[in-house]
Design brief:
This protein is mostly helical. It has helices at residues 6-37, 47-57, 68-86. The model has no long low-confidence stretch (mean pLDDT 80).
Length: 123
């Protein structure tokens, strides 16, 4: 039997998409905090998104003698970062042990356990 579930795959894809989309926001927030610590005005929290838009709109300039490795490397690096973000458990789906605490089982029934209040003073 297969353990594959579409709901888990959709949740994993959503988590990956959120990680990729929110990463520039975290970078902008860190830059803003650095600016506040230095008593200056920061570049803005959304600045990394503007930089990414500018970089995507640019034409790629590649030398004539560049190897295919030079052209493929940015995509390989982006794929590796996405895979690293995908394997980190972020939200709980109720199917993993990481999400719910392990139940402590005892071989002694609860009714047989003695507490300090139920002990009689010896003496």
């Amino acid at each position: 039997m297969s353990d594959f579930s579409w709901s888990g795959a959709i949740a994993q894809g959503t988590e990956l998409l959120l990680a990729v989309l929110l990463a520039p926001l975290l970078t902008g927030w860190v830059n803003q905090c650095r600016a506040w610590l230095q008593n200056r005005t920061g570049p803005g929290v959304l600045r990394p998104y503007l930089v990414l838009r500018k970089l995507v709109a640019k034409d790629a300039i590649v030398a004539d003698g560049a190897s295919p490795l030079f052209r493929v490397t940015p995509y390989v690096l982006f794929g590796c970062m996405c895979m690293a973000a995908a394997i980190v458990p972020t939200f709980c789906h109720g199917t993993t042990r990481l999400c719910r605490p392990a139940r402590k089982s005892s071989s002694i029934p609860r009714s047989k356990l003695r507490t300090s209040a139920s002990r009689s003073p010896s003496g």
